[in-house]
Amino acid sequence: MRKRKERADLPENEFERMRELMVEQQLVPRGIRNPGVLDAFRKVPRHRFVEKDLQNSAYDDHPLPIGEGQTISQPFMVACMTQCLDIKKNERVLEIGTGSGYQAAILAEIAAEVYTVERIDSIAKKAEALLRELGYNNVQYRVADGTNGWPEKAPFNGIIVTAGAPRVPEPLVEQLAEGGRLLIPVGGSWSQELRIVRKEKEGMREEYVCGCVFVPLVGEHGWREG
Ligand code: SAH
After folding, report:
1. Is the shortest distance between the CB of 123 and ligand 1 below 6 Å?
2. In 111-164, where do the E strands start and end?
3. Where are the domains of the chain?
4. Which of 57, 73, 100, 189 is labelled catalytic?
5. 189 among known catalytic residues
6. Residue whose CA lies nearest to ligand 1 atom number 17
7. Is the CB–ligand 1 distance for residue 44 below 6 Å?
């Protein structure tokens, strides 16, 4: 009997079709309308950011494991956060939690410069190699505790934290430019609320976006290790 062809063996144009379906079925109906965000999701090859044996489900409506107990977020959550960040072409963004590098690639399609910080060295190295291979030249990488931000490169127009924090880390608020937006999941270690913090002339404004589930943000201004 002939072995059924694994979907991971599919040609690139099949993955392109799956990307289009992801956009039309998961993102647009749930309110993702920003054309720049939708274009980025049509372009970035999400299947390259997971292991070969998971490529068949790379475009499905859920997060996937990327090793070391970490995950690549659900497409809709990445899209929702990116749309809320509302990044313009000339702006600079800081991401905390590089993970697979997928969110960084989406941001790199939209922003002028992306700075991404990851605490686990092996994960950071893998993401950097892939993003370079895919031709993203506007991304800079750092292995460090991202709860301290990246002070040497501040201020940022947008900061996106892709791990769940017990509270909003003060250094990140400090490193926001005036008019800047910080997207961060805040709450317990099993579920959080996504918040957007805006730095305005008159002061800080904080809004609730939606409920969410992220792996823990571990560090000085996050959860303690273990
Ligand atoms: N943005 C990622 C998803 C990240 S999962 C993607 O698109 O795939 C969350 C990541 O945050 C994990 O890789 C975890 O190691 C990292 N992380 C947790 N605490 C951190 C910290 N204090 N600083 C930097 N990275 C952290």
Report:
1. yes
2. 113-118, 139-143, 156-161
3. 9-212
4. 73
5. no
6. 97
7. no
pTM: 0.95
Distance CA 2, CA 194 (A): 48
Task: State both tokens at 173.
Answer: 């608020």
Q: Is 217 in the pocket of ligand 1 (CB under 6 A)?
A: yes
pLDDT (tens, 9 = 90+) of the chain, 226 residues, equals: 455 555 457 888 999 999 999 999 999 999 999 999 999 999 999 999 999 999 999 999 999 999 988 999 999 999 999 999 999 999 999 999 999 999 999 999 999 999 999 999 999 999 999 999 999 999 999 999 999 999 999 999 999 999 999 999 999 999 999 999 999 999 998 999 999 999 999 999 999 999 999 999 999 999 998 7
The finding on whether 128 has its CB within 6 A of some atom of ligand 1 is: no
The CA distances from residue 29 to 21, 22, 24, 36, 98, in Å, are 12, 11, 7, 16, 27
220 CA: nearest ligand 1 atom = 22
CATH architecture of 9-212: 3-Layer(aba) Sandwich (3.40)
Amino acid present at 170: E
C-beta separation of 123 from 99 below 8 A: yes
Q: Which amino acid is at 224?
A: R
